[in-house]
What we know:
alpha+beta, 3-stranded mixed beta sheet, 3 helices, about 30% helix, rod-shaped
Amino acid sequence: xxxxxxxxSVAAALLSGCVTTQQTTTPPLTNADLNSSLxxxxxxxxxxxxxxxxxxxxxxTALSDEIRKLxxxxxxxxxxxxxxxxxxxxxxxxxxAPQQCPENILGExxxxxxxxxxxxxxxxxxxxxxxxxxxxxxSLDARNIVLFEREGEQxxxxxxxxxxxxxxxxxxxxxxxxxxxxxxxVDTADDRRPVIHAHLKxxxxxxxxDLNLTDRSHLDYPLLLGRKFMKDIxxxxxxxxxxxxxxxxxxxxxxx
Length: 256
């Protein structure tokens, strides 16, 4: 009897344990459950993406509005800007330069050839003139030079060829500015010459200088201009002559 009771108790206990174990076990997921869960997650993701796209669309719209406003402001500013009128300069015709240019000036200096026609206003005569950079002073061909006083000052009377070498001389008088001594060579004495102040004109260029009076009949040109005349005012091109024109009625002792 006892054995039966014990057996029944054990059997009841085993049966009770089986019932408890079956109640706490989690049932396995089915395909339907998985599909339902995935669809729920997909819906959430789609909602998030749609929200972001909506925000970006709003930002793009706002940016487009700003660009349109800027374009409107630029167009308004351009319409108010004064128009620039471009004036085409007149077409300049090329003019050939004359062979002799009486106003040929280099900077502030005047261009002279080796020989020029020079008017000496004191004797109203044009002379064929040697422009000599080797000579210091300037001199004029004069004959019968006579010194005299006038009102306490030294004057000089002299003859100059003014109408041609075959015509009579004309006599002139000028105030003596000073005297100069010219050394011709070592074997001769110094030549003391009176100096007069003269007004010259070469082409359209006027100048003043001092001229010493001496007999130049043995020389090629009746008038010589030296370095003192050219200093600071003229440049000499020894490769040219009569840059400022050759006077037809000039006085010369050389046919050239």
